[in-house]
Task: inverse folding
């Protein structure tokens, strides 16, 4: 703690203010009722909106679906790349960086042209899982890549094979438990990205929580601030829940 020094504590304090002050201002504005009065009228008005709960449920479902896609598609692909095709790493790096370079509106246009089926998917909000997967890809890729680099994946695989375990058993029983913190981190980042994403849902005419915030903000700014506060609390609540589940699983695994 002493090695951190005054400069380190100063930087840490300024960084904390950078994140906390805007949040406090948003909460304060959501409570503002005019003429110096504060109360919960904005929150009460939100509860009377019939489209609040459906849009919130849609965003949560999309966040969970995107997290599932990250775990089921991206994680196995990265494990395979690190084990058997390390020369493909630059390709993975390039693909993971594309969402930072290509504007969201361009991604929407390209997706609409290239992906035209099936009808049962396009007609539902879960169609957004496809662009959301790519939108969360840079963050999830980095989180999983750091986790894989932190373990000796090759040695773990060779040790498991020497004991007669198949590759599937090694991944399920050894690699994935070792990557649990990285997978949880990638899921948290992906869920946060989905909860705050607006462009894809708005252009493709799906009513998500972010779209609702934009609509409310056009004529009720204090309610929009209340919605933003609610979105922040939901995201942090989900993060806390996933972290607690991951910690509980780790303790159970250690007890066994």
Result:
């Amino acid at each position: 703690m002493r090695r951190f020094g005054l400069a380190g504590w100063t930087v840490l304090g300024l960084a904390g203010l950078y994140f906390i002050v805007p949040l406090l201002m948003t909460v304060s504005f959501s409570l503002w009722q005019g003429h110096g009065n504060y109360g919960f009228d904005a929150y009460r008005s939100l509860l009377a909106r019939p489209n609040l709960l459906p849009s919130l449920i849609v965003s949560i479902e999309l966040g969970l679906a995107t997290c599932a896609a990250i775990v089921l598609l991206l994680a196995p692909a990265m494990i395979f790349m690190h084990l058997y095709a390390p020369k493909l790493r630059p390709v993975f790096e390039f693909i993971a960086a594309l969402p930072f370079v290509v504007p969201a509106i361009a991604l929407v246009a390209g997706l609409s042209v290239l992906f035209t089926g099936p009808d049962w998917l396009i007609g539902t909000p879960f169609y957004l899982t496809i662009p959301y997967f790519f939108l969360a890809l840079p963050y999830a890729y980095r989180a999983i890549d750091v986790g894989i680099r932190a373990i000796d994946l090759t040695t773990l695989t060779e040790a498991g094979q020497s004991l007669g375990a198949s590759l599937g058993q090694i991944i399920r029983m050894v690699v994935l438990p070792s990557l649990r913190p990285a997978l949880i981190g990638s899921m948290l980042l992906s869920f946060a990205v989905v909860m705050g994403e607006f462009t894809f849902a708005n252009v493709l005419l799906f009513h998500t929580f972010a779209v609702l915030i934009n609509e409310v903000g056009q004529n009720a700014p204090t309610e929009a601030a209340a919605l933003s506060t609610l979105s922040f609390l939901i995201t942090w609540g989900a993060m806390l829940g996933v972290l607690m589940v991951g910690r509980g699983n780790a303790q159970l695994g250690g007890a066994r």
